[in-house]
């Protein structure tokens, strides 16, 4: 993605970086970050894709890579800076100190996304169910008391059906368990 980026503070060297897919450039094979000399003769592996990991330092997000090139360990840090006006800009700082390299990626893609999710279909169904149940009970009780002038347990809407429901469920279970061998009339 970023090929041969010239360092802003380290003359004579270029850097290539691909955050997603390993690449090969010169002697750097299957790497995420590569350092190359300006004359094109020296190439150094600065990190591989499988060593990548995210970290947060004082609220700043960084991507880190590790490599060992010719037995010499190297670490690369890419600081991710959010700027909604930038597509993607990479600043290669070069070596920060012995075998540690720094880059700054400024991009709108580094900005955290704050996605708001609505209610799920199941949540909506539960809300609708309980609202309708509430309306059924309150409206039914109001109708029984106000219109039919009922009292006691008769104010419960459809009282006889609700109180016969457990017996109906028991009969249905018996019929199912017997695999329908019983006639329904015997239940």
Task: Describe this entry's structure for a reader.
The protein is of the alpha+beta class and 187 residues long. The chain has two helices and eleven strands; from the N terminus they run E-E-E-E-E-E-E-E-E-E-E-H-H. The strands form three sheets. It has a five-stranded mixed β-sheet, with no helix packed on it. The longest helix has 26 residues, at 121-146. The radius of gyration is 35 Å and the shape is elongated. It starts with a strand and ends in a 10-residue tail after the last helix. The mean pLDDT is 82.
Kindly summarize this structure in a few lines:
The chain has two helices and eleven strands. By secondary structure, it is an alpha+beta fold.
Topology:
Elements: E1 2-6, E2 13-17, E3 23-25, E4 28-31, E5 33-37, E6 43-47, E7 53-57, E8 60-69, E9 72-82, E10 89-97, E11 100-107, H1 121-146, H2 159-177
Parallel strand pairs: 9-11
Antiparallel strand pairs: 1-2, 2-5, 3-4, 5-6, 7-8, 8-9, 10-11
